[in-house]
Design a protein that fits this description.
globular, two-stranded antiparallel sheet, 2% strand
Length: 215
Amino acid sequence: MEALNYCIEWIDEDGKKNNPSNAPIGGFGNLFRHKKEDLSPESPQTFGGRFGDAGMTYNAAIASFLVYGACQYSLSWLRDGYLLNRHIAALILNDPSTYPTTPDFEPRMMGSSAEANDYMVFCGSMWKNSPEAREWLKTCAEEITKKKCDGPGCGKIEGRLKEYKLCGGCKQKYYCGAECQTKDWKENHKARCKKEKEYAAAVRAMGRLGGGIRD
């Protein structure tokens, strides 16, 4: 449970308040923030998975699986991880003997294959040592490709693939309809959308300076 709390502290903005380094206070945050009974296995996670938190979101998925098993809560972490970086899931499903062992230092975008490579270098052993977790990922591989509505208080999962509309600005948020998209825009996404577009532009600029971007 401490491992899951660690991931939540890094992903949840509330765990990083008043810390300019954008990390939980003390680096670890509160490892005892939640007890096992505090979180419902039948409900999706509500802490998000911010743009750029792909690796930590996959870590939360395997930590949740080891605590709660195959359930909606674990699946929601895995789905959010896939949304942030689909390449990681593909690498996990490979033969563990072929997992990357050398970091990729080339410029890259968040959600890229290079980012996935580095995640497997540093965190692949968790999946390698848990064949049950890998089998779980394999059985729900199609389910995690379905998008979750990012509208405030919605979280509904699409009934068929590619049913939901993607935000035309940041290319990160999905909505089940115009009502949810409008509500999210008014309540919080208007400011965040601009920040995420600016972040992506900065990464592309660094990539050009470094000789190109890895997708």
